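Q: Given only this backbone (347 positions), what sequence would you predict?
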């Protein structure tokens, strides 16, 4: 903090969404969380975060929507994970015995990722906020990799994945992250459709624990196989041949559809109009279809918008869904440089 210029320069970060390509639940842990085996990829759909010094004693948060539009209601500011991450980072620096000044920070968060959607927007914001706060305070050397993972895991199960930055096999409750190489070749496209029905993760896991789960362990087998194939090196073309398996490799599908029954018909209708397998990311309700490129994903998004306009796509929710074309990016450095997908909420 000796350089006065850095006090006025905002620290900016992109906080990418994630897609669960597979999600196997492998058991219940003593702490009540579920143990997972999940292959995850970051997307170039991202929230934007800027941290600058706050004028005053308290950290502050200002949330806007895409392009600076007024944000939809995202709940109480105090519960926001970006704000909690900044506070937790300060505490972790203090706990590490470091006494440097850690002035209050003003966080500007541009939300482009739908909330409670299975895309881990909040966890990604938290991971980006940890990184940005450390830089804003000139404290990147204070916390080692393990301490950062502990800090991230305490904020949200999906948080450690974003610290690693890239494709990964995620295990435990989310804290064991093994980087995987992304497929070689053009970054696969994906169209995302998020019905306007927020689905809280705890409710989905509770439904799973209550018995809404698939039989047989097929998802774990698929997840292990995909992780091994990626680790060995997979071309983008071969990866896309797995789209049908990926679309069903989610143990939380029955639990999510127990909460939002309309998801079954929505998946079927999407698969029919796109002629592609349609999966669910994480605990939902976001549905996705993989394709060879961003151009293909944009084509899929156009088909979906036309079907919605013609009343041919039955989706749960009172409002129109969020529809976005994106790509599965290779590493976070790429995520920071690729163009954002077009603003895609259909209104
Ligand atoms: O960590 P996070 O806040 O995302 O978790 C939300 C809730 O989802 C947890 O309180 C828990 O009920 C459930 N969960 C779980 N197992 C996981 C992740 C989340 O049971 N691996």
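A: Predicted residues:
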């Amino acid at each position: 903090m000796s350089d006065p210029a850095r006090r006025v320069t905002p620290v900016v970060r992109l906080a990418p969404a994630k897609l669960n390509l597979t999600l196997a639940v492998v058991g219940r842990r003593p702490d009540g969380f579920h143990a997972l085996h999940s292959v995850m990829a970051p997307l170039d759909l991202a929230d934007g975060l800027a941290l600058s010094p706050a004028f005053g004693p308290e950290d502050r948060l200002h949330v806007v929507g895409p392009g600076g539009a007024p944000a939809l209601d995202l709940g109480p500011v105090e519960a926001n994970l970006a704000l909690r991450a900044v506070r937790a980072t300060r505490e972790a620096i203090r706990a590490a015995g470091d006494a440097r000044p850690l002035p209050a920070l003003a966080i500007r968060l541009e939300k482009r990722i739908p909330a409670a959607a299975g895309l881990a927007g909040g966890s990604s914001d938290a991971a980006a906020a940890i990184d940005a706060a450390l830089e804003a305070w000139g404290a990147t050397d204070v916390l080692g990799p393990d301490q950062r993972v502990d800090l991230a895991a305490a904020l949200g199960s999906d948080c450690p994945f974003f610290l690693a930055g890239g494709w990964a096999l995620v295990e435990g409750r989310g804290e064991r992250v093994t980087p995987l190489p992304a497929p070689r070749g053009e970054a696969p496209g994906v169209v995302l459709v998020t019905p306007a029905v927020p689905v809280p993760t705890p409710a989905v896991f509770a439904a799973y624990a209550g018995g809404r789960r698939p039989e047989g362990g097929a998802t774990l087998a698929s997840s292990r196989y995909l992780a091994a194939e990626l680790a060995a090196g997979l071309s983008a073309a071969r990866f896309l041949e797995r789209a049908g398996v990926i679309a069903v490799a989610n143990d939380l599908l029955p639990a999510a559809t127990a909460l939002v029954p309309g998801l079954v018909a929505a998946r079927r209708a999407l698969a029919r109009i796109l002629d592609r397998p349609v999966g669910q990311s994480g605990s939902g309700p976001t549905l996705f279809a993989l394709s060879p490129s961003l151009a293909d994903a944009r084509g899929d998004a156009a088909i979906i918008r036309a079907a919605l306009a013609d009343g041919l796509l039955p989706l749960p929710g009172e409002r129109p869904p969020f529809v976005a074309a994106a790509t599965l990016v290779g590493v976070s450095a790429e995520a920071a440089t690729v163009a954002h997908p077009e603003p895609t909420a259909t209104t």
